[in-house]
Amino acid sequence: MLGAVCGSRALARASDSQFRARLPSADRQLGQNLLAPKPRADHARQHRRRSLERDEDGGEGRDHLVGRPFHRSRDHDPEQGGRRTNRHANRRTLSPKAARHRSRGGGGRRRAVIDIEAAWNFEDLQESERRFRALLGQCESDVESACVLTQLARVHGLQGDFEKARELLEEARARAKGEPSAATIRIHLETGRVLNSSGDPAAARPEFETAFALAEALEEEFLAVDAAHMIAIVETPENAIAWNERALQLASSAADPKARKWKASLHNNLGWTYHDLGDFEKALFHFQGGLQERLASGTPTTVRIAKWCVGRCLRSLGKLEEALTVQMSLAEDPASAEDGFVSEEIAECLYALNRTEESRSHF
Fold first, then answer.
1. Which domains, and CATH codes, for the chain?
2. DSSP character string of 7-74
3. How many whole angstroms separate alpha carbon 69 and alpha carbon 84?
4. Are the CB atoms for 262 and 215 separated by under 8 Å?
5. Half-sphere exposure of residue 115, counting CA atoms within 13 Å on the CB side?
6. How many CB atoms lie within 10 A of CB 103?
């Protein structure tokens, strides 16, 4: 029987990376119920890469119960925004003042500015595609339509249809005409995401760097944070820390409330990066920071994810009773019923506390 338990523990240890695959940035969710029984390892790896994108969200992804990698995020959470400069009036589409109305020619009629982030539903990509196609019919400029096309490309990239994503990005480029704008930033961002998701992170990095430089020049705060966190995703863990810290600083000081929504996902990404490097104290600091952000403005799902991360890190620190308390509280939540990751963590804690018999039923 003990051999069976040890075998189960070996499988359970592999679940950390799988759990991260289910976390929001993210990225970003992404068509998966984060609290469903854990996926097979091959599926989990795919989810993990998606979660690294945002993404998500601001990502909420969206921001990664297990995460955009845990190195990132993609809650799909952060929403787009950014200050505008008068030099580029055609960037009005993505203004942080998106709730304001603008004139619509001659008769004084006005309409709401297109809100790209509001159209995203990372748990239902088909619904997201439907919304973006509907938005295309509302666009009044090439810049607006180019922005929407980049998001349609992202939908297809998340679905693994990279050829279609590239086609849509080419169409977006033709409409953006290379002019400095939010559309151009998004084209570089989504081109980089497609390259990264299709297995070429080296080629993706220059796209993210260009997006970051342009976003800073145009004072697009939300997109600058998005680009910085994507650079971190394609970096080594050591260099990823510097870029995630930079992104967190940008988000924390942003005037745009949508850019500030990135903070939870960035804390999560930093937490997992430090955790992977074995610096559990710093990891816990960021996991707790992410939890505070989620408690302030997250959803029940993202709050549960953040609590799981805190509990997981407490186990790494050897604070087994505290870790067990966190996971047991999650297990009592009906929304976490039959969640394999919570159950495995309970089992690991019990086993480490020499409560072997109790642990068996949770493996």
1. 1-78+261-363 (1.25.40.10), 80-236 (1.25.40.10)
2. HHHHHHHTHHHHHHHTS-BB---TTS-TTSSPPPHHHHHHHHHHHHT-BB-----------STTT--B
3. 32
4. no
5. 15
6. 10
Instruction: Dig out the tokens for 44 from the structure.
Output: 């989990």
258 Cβ partners below 8 Å, 6+ apart? Answer: 58, 78, 79, 80, 81, 96, 117, 222
What pLDDT, in 10s, does the model give residues 182-199?
A: 999 999 999 999 999 999
Q: Burial letters for 157-173: b for 16+ Cβ neighbours within 10 Å, e otherwise? A: bbbeebeebbebbebbb
Over the stretch 86-138, which tens digit does the pLDDT of each residue have? Answer: 333 333 333 333 333 333 333 333 344 688 989 999 889 999 999 999 999 99
Tell me how far apart the terminal alpha carbons of the chain are, to the nearest angstrom.
12
DSSP 128-176: HHHHHHHHHTT--SHHHHHHHHHHHHHHHHHTT-HHHHHHHHHHHHHHH
Q: CA-CA-CA-CA torsion for 138, 141, 146, 148, nearest 10 degrees?
A: -20
Between the CA of residue 43 and those of 47, 124, 154, 241, 306, what are the distances in Å?
6, 17, 19, 26, 22
The model's pTM: 0.72
Describe the crossing of helices 280-297 and 300-316 by its angle, rounded to 10 degrees.
Answer: 160
**Radius of gyration of the chain from its Cα atoms, rounded to whole angstroms:** 21
Local structure of residue 122 (DSSP, 8 states): T
Consecutive H or E run containing 101: strand 101-103
Helix (H, G, I), strand (E, B) or coil at 281: helix
Q: Which residues contact 295 (CB under 8 A, 6 or more apart)?
A: 303, 306
